[in-house]
Design brief:
With 482 residues, the chain is an alpha+beta fold. The protein has 2 domains: 291 residues, Zn peptidases (Aminopeptidase), CATH 3.40.630.10; 142 residues, Alpha-Beta Plaits. It has 16 helices and 19 strands. The strands form 4 sheets. Strands 1, 2, 3, 6, 7, 8, 16, 17 and 18 form a 9-stranded mixed sheet that branches. Strands 9, 11, 13, 14 and 15 form a 5-stranded antiparallel sheet that branches. A 3-stranded antiparallel sheet has the order 4-5-19. Strand 1 and strand 2 form a beta hairpin. It starts with a helix and ends with a helix. The structure holds zinc ion (ZN). Zinc ion binds next to helix 5.
C-alpha cells in the first residue's frame, strides 16, 4: 500500500526533517524589519528549494515587498488538487526587551520541544506539508492528488500583496480545497479541526456637539454634551440578557446545532480558571450560552476605544465639542456585514438624543484627530469580513478528520475560533475554495512571544497527518466518482 510506504519514509526521515526545520529556523525572516529583507528572501529561497526537492515546479513570485513562494505539481488524471497555504516570515524577536531565555534564531531542542522564533508560527507547521509532499514524491513517485503551494512572506505584516495576486491568478490557483496549518490543537493530546471562524465589522461612531469645547460652568445645562449622548447610545447597544440590541442583529444568525453544543460541552474548559487567568471577578455574556459558545459561535459587539473631552491630568471644566468610539462586531454564519451595518445605523438613529449630530463609518483618525480631520466625514466603507464555516458534511472536512485521527492517533475535536483569519476569506472570495484548518501547534506555543516553541512529536505527527490528508482527499474523490 503506497500510503504505508510514505508513512514509513516519514518515520525514517525524522532526523532529516528536524535538521531541516533547524536550518529554516536559523534564518531570521522578520518581514516587518526592512534591514532583514535579505534574510526574508533567503528563507523564501530555502522554501523554494525544499519544494523543488519535493518534486514540484517551484518559483518565487516577486511582489512590492517580500516574494511569495509558489509551487505546483499537476494532479494525476481525474484527481483533485490540494492548495497548501503557509508563511515563511516570522514576528520580530527582541531577546532583551521580550525576555527570551535563548537567542531566538539559534534553535534549541529541550524537553521534546524545539525553541525558536517561527517554530510554531508558521515554519514548523508549514514544513510538515512540504515534508509530506517530499515523502510522497520519493517513496511513491508522487502524491495521489495535485499540489499547489502558496507560501507567503508577508503574513505577519497583514499580507498586503497576497490578495491582489490571488485575485489576478484565479486560473493558476484553481484547486479543490485549501489546507492550512497555522493554528493550534485544543490541548496537548487533543488534536482539533477548526471548522468555523467569526467575521468582523469595524466602525467608528462620532458625535458632534458645539463647534468648540465650551466652559461647563457657563454653558453646562443649555446644550447636549456629545460624550453623554455617545454613552447613552453605547449603553443601550446590549440588553439585560447580554444580547446585542442592534436592529435585526440576530435575524440571520445560524443557530448552533445539537452536535456542536454537545462537542463544545465535552471539551475540558473551566470557567473559574478561565476567569482567574483573565483577572476578572466573573464571566458575563449572552444568556443561555456557555463560554466557548459565546466566543466561538455567537456574535458580539465590543467598544474598542472611547474618546472625547479632557484627557489630561487633573481637572478641566470642559463641555466637549465632540466624542467618539471605535466599535467592533464579531459576526457568525450567516450574518451579512452590510445588513448588520445598516441595522446599526438605524439603531443609532433611534437612540441618539437630540441636540447633536453624528457620523458612523470606517474607522477614522480617532482620539488624535484635530480640527478639520475631526470634522471630515467618515468613509462609508467600514472594514468588514463575513464569518466562514466549513460544513461538517463536506468531504474535505471528513478527509481532514480521518487524516488527523490516523496521524495523531486520536479523533480530532471539532472547534471553532472566535478570531478572523483574513487569508481564509481571500481563498473563499477569489477562488471559491473552502479551507481545512489543521493546527499542529499548541495553545501555549508562545507565538509572537518569547521562547516560542513547537512540540517535536507534534511536528512529526503533522508530517504524517499532511501525508495522510493527500491520500484521504484522493480517496474521497474516488468514492464520489465511483
Ligand atoms: Zn502564522
Amino acid at each position: 500500500m503506497r500510503t504505508e510506504q510514505v508513512l514509513a519514509a516519514i518515520e525514517r526521515e525524522r532526523e532529516r526533517h528536524e535538521r531541516e526545520l533547524v536550518e529554516l529556523l536559523r534564518i531570521p525572516s522578520v518581514s516587518t524589519e526592512p534591514e532583514r529583507a535579505q534574510q526574508v528572501r533567503r528563507a523564501a529561497e530555502w522554501v523554494r528549494r525544499a519544494l523543488a526537492d519535493a518534486g514540484c515546479q517551484a518559483r518565487l513570485v516577486e511582489t512590492a515587498r517580500h516574494p511569495i513562494v509558489y509551487a505546483e505539481r499537476p494532479a494525476p488524471s481525474g484527481r483533485p488538487t490540494v492548495l497548501v497555504y503557509g508563511h515563511y516570515d516570522v514576528q520580530p524577536a527582541d531577546p532583551e526587551r521580550d525576555g527570551w531565555s535563548r537567542p531566538p534564531f539559534e534553535p534549541v531542542i529541550a524537553g521534546g520541544n524545539i525553541y525558536a522564533r517561527g517554530a510554531s508560527d508558521d515554519k514548523g507547521q508549514m514544513l510538515a506539508w512540504v515534508h509530506a509532499a517530499r515523502a510522497w514524491h520519493q517513496a511513491a513517485g508522487g502524491p495521489p492528488v495535485g499540489l499547489k503551494f502558496v507560501i507567503e512572506g508577508e503574513e505577519e505584516i497583514g499580507s498586503p500583496n497576497l490578495g491582489p495576486w490571488i485575485a489576478a491568478h484565479r486560473d493558476l490557483l484553481a484547486a479543490d480545497v485549501v489546507a492550512i496549518s497555522d493554528m493550534d490543537q485544543f490541548a496537548p493530546g487533543m488534536p482539533a479541526l477548526t471548522y468555523g471562524l467569526r467575521g468582523l465589522l469595524y466602525v467608528e461612531l462620532r458625535v458632534y456637539g458645539p463647534a468648540e469645547d465650551l466652559h461647563s460652568g457657563i454653558y453646562g445645562g443649555a446644550v447636549m454634551n456629545p460624550a453623554t449622548a455617545l454613552c447613552r447610545v453605547l449603553g443601550r447597544l446590549h440588553d439585560e440578557r447580554g444580547r446585542v440590541a442592534v436592529d435585526g442583529f440576530y435575524d440571520e444568525v445560524r443557530p448552533l446545532e445539537p452536535w456542536e453544543r454537545e462537542m463544545f460541552a465535552a471539551l475540558p474548559h473551566d470557567d473559574a480558571r478561565y476567569a482567574a487567568e483573565l483577572g476578572v471577578p466573573a464571566l458575563v455574556g449572552e444568556e443561555g450560552y456557555s463560554t466557548l459558545e459565546r466566543v466561538w459561535a455567537r456574535p458580539t459587539l465590543e467598544v474598542n476605544g472611547l474618546f472625547g473631552g479632557f484627557q489630561g491630568p487633573g481637572a478641566k471644566t470642559v463641555l466637549p465639542g465632540y466624542a467618539g468610539a471605535k466599535l467592533s462586531m464579531r459576526l457568525v454564519p450567516d450574518q451579512d456585514p452590510a445588513k448588520v451595518y445598516a441595522g446599526l445605523r438605524r439603531t443609532i438613529e433611534r437612540l441618539m438624543p437630540p441636540g447633536v449630530r453624528w457620523d458612523l463609518g470606517a474607522p477614522g483618525p480617532g482620539a488624535t484627530a484635530s480640527g478639520a480631520a475631526r470634522r471630515a466625514p467618515l468613509a462609508q466603507s467600514p472594514e468588514a469580513a463575513p464569518a466562514v464555516l466549513l460544513e461538517r458534511s463536506s468531504p474535505f472536512a471528513a478527509a481532514a478528520a480521518r487524516a488527523i485521527a490516523a496521524g495523531f492517533g486520536r479523533e480530532p475535536v471539532w472547534v471553532r475560533s472566535g478570531g478572523t483569519i483574513p487569508v481564509v476569506l481571500l481563498f473563499k472570495q477569489h477562488l471559491g475554495l473552502d479551507a481545512v484548518l489543521m493546527g499542529y501547534g499548541l495553545p501555549d506555543d508562545n507565538k509572537h512571544g518569547p521562547d516560542e516553541k513547537l512540540c517535536l512529536e507534534d511536528f512529526h505527527r503533522g508530517c504524517r497527518t499532511s501525508a495522510l490528508f493527500f491520500a484521504e482527499v484522493a480517496r474521497a474523490a474516488g468514492a464520489r466518482a465511483g
